[in-house]
Design brief:
The chain is an alpha/beta fold and 538 residues long. It contains 25 helices and 15 strands. The two termini are 44 Å apart.
Length: 538
């Protein structure tokens, strides 16, 4: 049984489990001191003796009593738990390595049975969840201890405030919003990490420097190897075309505020962006962070399954807990289909690990109540598990097709401007006519390639140079015509278009018209079919 930590505080869950006479409880947390302090307060309130054990120190009574017992052997420690009298809670630190020993596992099962007749409970405290199959039914509950909330973070910061110069103290006290920003910047860290970065900031700048806090936070988040704190390098204005998608996102930029809750709006859950490679799906995800002014976390699904056997489920829980702790935030999952494409055969290939991790993810996606907005991108819709496309997982599924004339003109202007060139000096109509079937990524690479050619020849970038470069590029829409047509067919009834397609009739002067196409690619289709200008009936 896994206790969902979003419904009740971890301390409250432990209290309920002890009242219900649960004999074995497993708590997962890196914050050993914070968990033990909460448990100590709970035992004081309930007049229970609290004994803490470690393999290096043995037992130590820390609540409603005193004394130590030099019992470091795990088997003898369990014997002590059984023989002890009265109402008591026993915390076993880092007991999970001993669960590999059959004798310890067997003894722990015996202890679980014997403690049901008493007023004693055992709490195994570890930074990772490692429960052998033999103990799955004996361990009554697994509690993932939540990261510090805003109040705990603020209390940690205020303990350092007396060390700041008087002018700094006065400034912080006179501006309540400053402390709010400091606390938001530190959400997602443990109390020790928060205290360390606050102290580092105070030493460096004699105040709580937001840049120092955020930089430290990024490094700590990256330590997991699964989540990357992505910098806001792209602006929303860097996304060309896709007016429907952009309008949808703009309308929801204030949807995470308390004013939106008072208005009756639900929290946005997320979107799934599918479609042709190179059409701006990942760029859009990166730009939303800048538009909404929210932290952008990138998840590499493949890294969840790396490492020791049995750690994948724990990795997914860690990702979810971290994202929820720093909410409101955006969780970006790129190329989702590659991470979860093997769910159907998971039982035969990996013992069901992929299926369990995927199940945890989509359940969280469906039921999450924290303001974590998920942006998932996918290129191959055929590899997406059907459960992921069910209504309720995402707010909307958008299909990103090849850009039409207006979109290509907008994209070309953006890339010319980013390269320090004035778009008005170029014949954009001519460039648009020469780029039928091109994706946004191909347009960007064409500008870069033309710049190399111009630099090598000693000339500046020109319309003629761009057109010459474009003639040497074979668009993906030509080399993968059948796959792209399959995507479009799938999207007709299953997704919403990201762009207003079909504003004008398709032209017949694209790459296909200039060079033709292999007979097996075209069949009996005319060359202009699927050239990126066709109106989709979505």
């Amino acid at each position: 049984m896994t206790v969902p930590d979003h419904k009740r505080s971890s301390k409250g869950e432990i209290e309920d489990l002890i009242k219900a006479r649960y004999s074995l409880i497993y708590v997962t947390s890196h914050e050993e001191e914070r968990v033990e302090e909460s448990v100590r307060k709970l035992c004081v309130e309930r007049e229970m003796r609290l004994e803490v054990w470690s393999v290096t120190e043995g037992f130590k009574v820390v609540a409603n009593g005193s004394g130590t017992r030099d019992v470091k052997d795990p088997m003898k420690a369990l014997d002590h738990v059984v023989r002890a009298e009265g109402r008591a809670l026993f915390v076993l630190r880092d007991f999970h390595p001993f669960l590999k020993e059959p004798a310890v596992v067997r003894r722990l099962r015996d202890v679980a049975h014997e403690l049901r007749k008493t007023k004693k409970s055992v709490l195994m405290l570890s930074p990772v969840t490692k429960i052998p199959p033999e103990l799955e039914k004996s361990v009554a509950a697994v509690v993932d201890w939540e990261l510090p909330n805003r109040q705990e973070i603020e209390e940690t910061a205020r303990r350092l405030l007396p060390n700041a110069p008087p002018a700094t103290q006065q400034m912080i006290e006179s501006d309540p919003t400053f402390m709010e920003r400091v606390v938001e910047g530190a959400l997602g860290l443990t109390l020790v990490e928060a205290a360390n970065v606050f102290a580092k900031s105070m030493v460096r700048t004699h105040t709580f420097d937001l840049e120092t806090i955020l930089e430290e936070k990024k490094q700590i988040i990256r330590k997991s190897g699964m989540l990357e704190y992505y910098e806001h390098r792209e602006e929303f204005s860097d996304v060309g075309g896709m007016e429907i998608l952009k309008d949808w996102l703009v309308k929801r930029r204030n949807a995470f505020s308390s004013r939106a809750r008072d208005f009756g709006l639900p929290l946005p859950k997320g979107i799934l962006l599918i479609g042709v490679p190179g059409t701006g799906k990942s760029l859009t995800a990166k730009a939303v962070g800048a538009l909404w002014q929210m932290p952008l976390l990138r998840l590499d699904v493949g890294k969840i399954f790396a490492g020791l056997v049995g750690s994948s489920e724990e990795n997914m829980r860690t990702v979810i807990k971290t994202a929820e702790a720093i909410a409101p935030a955006i969780l970006w999952i790129d190329e989702l289909e590659k991470g979860f494409s093997g769910t159907g055969s998971s039982g035969q290939t990996d013992g069901g690990t992929t299926s369990r991790v995927f199940g945890s993810f989509i359940t969280w996606l469906q039921e999450k109540t924290t303001p974590v907005f998920v942006i998932a991108t996918a290129n191959n819709v055929q590899q997406l598990p059907p459960e992921l496309l069910r209504k309720g997982r995402f707010d909307e599924i958008f299909f990103c097709d090849l850009p039409d004339r207006e979109d290509r003109s907008s994209i070309m202007e953006i890339h010319l401007r980013k390269k320090g060139r004035d778009p008005s000096r170029f014949d954009l109509d001519k460039l648009v006519d020469a780029t039928v079937d091109y994706s946004g990524a191909e347009l960007e690479q064409a500008v870069i390639a033309a710049l190399y050619d111009a630099f090598d020849s000693g000339n500046d970038l020109s319309t003629e140079g761009l057109v010459h470069t474009l003639r040497d590029i074979v668009p993906l829409a030509v080399t993968m015509r059948e796959q792209i047509e399959g995507m479009r067919e799938w999207a007709r009834t299953r997704a919403r278009p990201a762009s207003a397609r079909g504003r004008q009739a398709p032209k017949k002067d694209g790459w296909m018209a200039r060079y033709g196409a292999p007979a097996q690619n075209l069949g009996d289709k005319s060359p202009d079919v699927g050239d990126g200008e066709r109106k989709l009936e979505l």
